[in-house]
Amino acid sequence: MRWENLTEGSAGPAALFGADAVVTRTIDTPEFRGITFHEVRARSIVNRVPGASRMPFEWTVNPYRGCSHACVYCFARKTHSYLDLDTGIGFDSQIVVKTNAPDLLRRELTSPRWTGAHIAMGTNVDCYQRAEGRYGLMPGIIEALRDRANPFSILTKGTLILRDLPLLREAAEVTEVGISVSVGFTDTRLWRTVEPGTPSPAARLGAVRALTDAGIECGVLMAPVIPFLGDSPEQLRATVRAVAEAGATSVTPLVLHLRPGAREWFTAWLGAHHPHLVPRYERMYAGGSYAPTWYQRRITRQVHELAAEFGIGPARRGEARKIVTPERPDGSAPAGATQLSLL
Predict the structure, then answer these.
(1) Is the Cβ–Cβ distance between 269 and 72 less than 8 Å?
(2) Confidence at 85, pLDDT banded by 50, 70, 90
(3) Phi, psi of 297 (to 5 degrees)
(4) Residue 100 near residue 39 (C-beta atoms within 8 A)
(5) CB of 225 closer than 8 Å to CB of 74
């Protein structure tokens, strides 16, 4: 891989980490078998979201690249190609770990240029994926945000977030904290093939219940709704009912989108598991990465109607993440690379 193009002293864009700061480890234990960790010392950790993004926040923190959740549809797969890593199996098993993320974040938050804007986490890859159990970066990250009373949000499929429940409660006492758990469906057969490295949908909903019982509001991002596999009226009803029973404060549907990198990997999976659906997907996504507007609106309407029936509502834009937007001087920004947003 071309680490040298991304390290200090390279001729390309701003380096992501120092030239002597890459350590590769293969851990031969059952929970990490087949996974290689590339430990790096990042040069920046607060990243600005592109201006064209649809997301209601400007800044992200991502302590990892690559994700052992191995979701076949993950939109972030393309980012692995920037490191000359494979966007298929490589994305699932070659995990870049920014080992200095907590210390670096604490430093960037104290910069005179930083004005305390909302920071979103889990928008590129999951910060509570399996690697977090080994490296434990999130407690230090949450502590840094808590100590500066900096608003933040977390989107995750990882039940490991419950480990940090005491810290999240402390942070919520001094700043706005938004937690969302991603549960696109409750079909266990679909889950085992399309999200093989994640906790089960039931376990994730259990985390929602534990968070809400602890006094931390938690919404559910119902994502992705997968056309022809997870979008029947019965499946949507079962999922929304389970979300409501878990005590979620909101449910927000998001239909599967297939960006370059993810599209090729998902199509290969679809051809292996559901070959009869390949032509239907080719027609549905002929216009680009997103399903047709009419289909997205239909799913949104159905989910919102079910949510109303079961006594929960959709999240308004920014609500689940409790976005606050402090004034920021023009041009002020922490040093950092631009990251992809969730959508």
Answers:
(1) yes
(2) confident
(3) -65, -35
(4) no
(5) no
